[in-house]
Amino acid sequence: MTSWLVAATENDVREGKIKPVEVGGTRLLLIRVEGEIFAIENRCPHMNCPLQGGVLVDHSIKCPCHSWSFDLRTGAYVASDKIKVNVYETQLKDGNISVLV
């Protein structure tokens, strides 16, 4: 069963920045790009490297370990959409960012 859980306040996630959080036992990254807040799993499927040290480029994050890039909107590896990381819906309400986990 999934539910909305508060992950951070709106002020915790600044434009173009990566905010690691743990929500309901799941390690995620909250990232704001062009005003939209994305939630993506903090784990590269290649070798389980944390994505939190990665580099943001437009709507993707590049893994710091082996340079694999993942689309923040879909979780798809940019070189093959057959490889993905989990992405989660977000909502902003009353100054809080919630994630559907």
TrEMBL record:
Which top-level group of life is the source organism from?
A: Archaea
Keyword terms of this UniProt record: 2Fe-2S, Iron, Iron-sulfur, Metal-binding
Which cofactors, by name? [2Fe-2S] cluster
Pfam families in UniProt: Rieske
GO MF annotations, alphabetized: 2 iron, 2 sulfur cluster binding; metal ion binding
Instruction: List residues of the Rieske domain.
Output: 5-99
Which CDD domains did the record assign? Rieske
Indicate what this protein is called per its UniProt record. Rieske (2Fe-2S) protein
Organism the protein comes from: Methanolobus vulcani
